[in-house]
Design the sequence.
């Protein structure tokens, strides 16, 4: 078995495009769920809005790339309002139900055959929309960059822009969460009525949290669109949201570093178990009758699931969580 | 140990007849025909009630009388089936809870709502009104809200000292005892500088030594011009600090007057005895 290759591939993953995408998605969820207590199970919907906005703007309308970005952000605000207006006055579960449905609705509309010319239908959008974005890149798209671990010029550019966004949003989150604004969100997470009784417009703060978390999710969608070769509708299924939640919980909710480190660990575990299992099968240490190539794809998620279970048992607050806070839940 | 009883006695409501629904010389809150049903029960049915401004009014009544429900309705936390009321001559029925609070009518809860994962100090700061850092874009720019936050902190520290919570300042509120949480909730409500504060059983669970200093504090607040309405079961406390007592039973206003007139009131005695010996189902749920 080529252990060096396994390690190299596994260590590449926590810095790669997937880790960027899930870190961004999880930062948004951390604001909504971690700090405000809102159950947004439709983060993937915001990602789809972002990805399709940049894709369709360039491929179909031939607009400049930044128009697509602006459009994606504007539509994300609209989506957040649509989701929030009917539900945020109600109990928390209503938002959860509506958001989980919304993500699926967006995916199903985008893959509809009647829209094939517009959104690419089930085949998705080919990657032409990426060209103007890579035209801005100082790197050669085809060349390899890095040391020991190598990335293509494309990925390298997406990673640099993506991790910069992660840094900017995390710094913003850090500022917000020590401000009076953040104090209100954290208070809402615990008891809305207490916050109302002190003259704060709880509904509006929940709406702001939903909108801003959704906007960051939209950026995750941009990263998804530019980081992958195309926009595929079935890449935007509900499981994406839950993987982002898994990453967040691994890292620790309501912590600035939680979504970032969580996403990196998530992708390390996924890639490492994938590579190990493949290596073991190739060496016949595991019979290929027992585990086929497609099954490995599933087993690695089982391993992540086991990891999460162990985490919940031995370190329920997540990697960065605060045990003292958790103990208060028992009250 | 009635600290300001002389001042109180003078300030009481001389010349106001002790009859239910009587008009007051200077009401801050005036309630008209407020009705709230829960399924078959009429939780609140108050025809007319005025709360005198700058006075301490005790709201008493057996368990299940509708005191908490009345608080919920008046402060916008529950919607009545009928009724209207004014705060400072401004109609506020139908107004959302947070706007009622902003007008200066702030309530506390019978079941305390200390925000346990926030520090005691953060709980206090949350209470302050008009913080620029509560707006999103200002929040991103600490230099815009830091100085305001510091002055809020000074005020919070002062109040915490007065409520004997100074030593808890940096602890998470969830680590406090039930009595301390009551105190914190009251102090936090005062952070918003209300003109009318409505306290739902503020002394429940507070240790007796502290109760005395708290009573003194409430009286001092009233002397500074704050109007206080509080629900209390301890008649010694009621006697000690209230200028006026309002009695509810089964949703209705059955008596009001100075506390000495209430003690002699046969309707009140019957109401209390009635529930003590009567149907226990009306006394179970209190919130
Ligand atoms: N949310 C509710 N649903 C149903 N019944 C309620 C509700 N809140 C209060 N009640 C009923 O209304 C009556 C008044 O309750 P409450 O206002 O809590 O009384 P108090 O505070 O005077 O003890 C009680 O009979 C109680 O059971
Ligand atoms: Mg009550």
Sequence:
């Amino acid at each position: 078995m080529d252990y060096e290759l396994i390690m190299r591939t596994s260590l590449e993953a926590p810095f790669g495009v997937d880790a960027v995408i899930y870190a961004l998605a999880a930062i948004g969820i951390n604001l909504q769920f971690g700090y405000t207590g809102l159950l947004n199970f439709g983060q993937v919907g915001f990602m789809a809005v972002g990805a399709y906005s940049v894709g369709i703007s360039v491929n179909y309308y031939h607009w400049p790339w930044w128009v697509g970005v602006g459009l994606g952000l504007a539509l994300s605000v609209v989506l957040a309002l649509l989701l929030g207006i009917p539900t945020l006055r109600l109990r928390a579960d209503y938002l959860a139900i509506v958001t989980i449905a919304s993500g699926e609705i967006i995916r199903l509309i985008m893959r509809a055959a009647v829209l094939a010319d517009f959104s690419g239908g089930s085949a998705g959008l080919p990657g032409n929309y990426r060209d103007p974005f890579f035209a801005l890149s100082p790197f050669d798209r085809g060349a390899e960059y890095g040391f020991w671990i190598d990335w293509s010029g494309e990925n390298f550019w997406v990673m640099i822009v993506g991790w910069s966004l992660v840094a900017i949003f995390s710094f913003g989150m850090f500022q917000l969460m020590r401000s009076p604004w953040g104090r209100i969100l954290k208070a809402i997470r615990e008891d809305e009525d207490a916050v109302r009784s002190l003259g704060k417009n709880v509904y509006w703060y929940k709406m702001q949290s939903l909108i801003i978390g959704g906007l960051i999710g939209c950026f995750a969608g941009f990263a998804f669109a530019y980081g992958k070769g195309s926009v595929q509708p079935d890449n935007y299924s509900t499981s994406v949201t839950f993987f982002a939640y898994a990453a967040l919980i691994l890292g620790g909710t309501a912590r600035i570093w939680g979504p970032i480190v969580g996403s990196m660990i998530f992708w390390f575990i996924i890639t490492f178990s994938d590579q190990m299992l493949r290596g073991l099968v190739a060496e016949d240490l595991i019979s290929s009758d027992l585990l086929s190539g497609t099954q490995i794809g599933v087993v690695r998620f089982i391993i992540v699931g086991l990891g999460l279970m162990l985490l919940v048992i031995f370190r329920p607050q997540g990697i960065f969580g605060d045990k003292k806070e958790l103990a208060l839940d028992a009250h | 140990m009635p600290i300001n009883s002389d001042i109180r006695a003078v300030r009481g409501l001389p010349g106001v007849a002790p009859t239910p629904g009587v008009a007051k010389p200077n009401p801050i809150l005036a309630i008209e025909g407020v009705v709230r049903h829960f399924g078959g029960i009429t939780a609140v049915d108050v025809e007319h009630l005025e709360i005198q401004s700058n006075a301490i009014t005790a709201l008493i009544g057996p368990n299940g009388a509708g005191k908490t429900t009345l608080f919920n309705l008046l402060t916008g936390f529950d919607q009545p089936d009928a009724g209207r009321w004014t705060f400072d001559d401004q109609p506020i029925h139908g107004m959302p809870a947070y706007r009622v609070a902003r007008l200066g009518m702030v309530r506390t809860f019978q079941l305390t709502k200390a925000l346990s994962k926030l520090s005691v100090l953060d709980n206090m700061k949350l209470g302050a009104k008009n913080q620029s850092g509560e707006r999103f874009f200002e929040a991103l720019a600490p230099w815009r809200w830091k100085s305001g936050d510091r002055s809020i902190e000074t005020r919070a520290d002062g109040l915490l000292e007065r409520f004997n919570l100074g030593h808890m300042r940096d602890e998470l509120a969830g680590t406090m005892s039930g009595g301390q949480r009551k105190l914190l909730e009251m102090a936090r409500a005062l952070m918003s500088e209300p003109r009318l504060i409505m306290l739902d059983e503020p002394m429940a669970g507070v240790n007796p030594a502290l109760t005395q200093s708290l009573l003194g504090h409430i009286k001092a607040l009233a002397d500074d011009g704050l109007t206080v309405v509080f629900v209390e079961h301890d008649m010694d406390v009621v006697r000690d600090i209230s200028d006026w007592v309002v009695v509810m039973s089964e949703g209705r206003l059955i008596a009001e007057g100075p506390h000495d007139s209430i003690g002699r009131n046969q309707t009140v005695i019957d109401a209390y005895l009635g529930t003590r010996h009567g149907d226990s189902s009306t006394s179970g749920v209190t919130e």
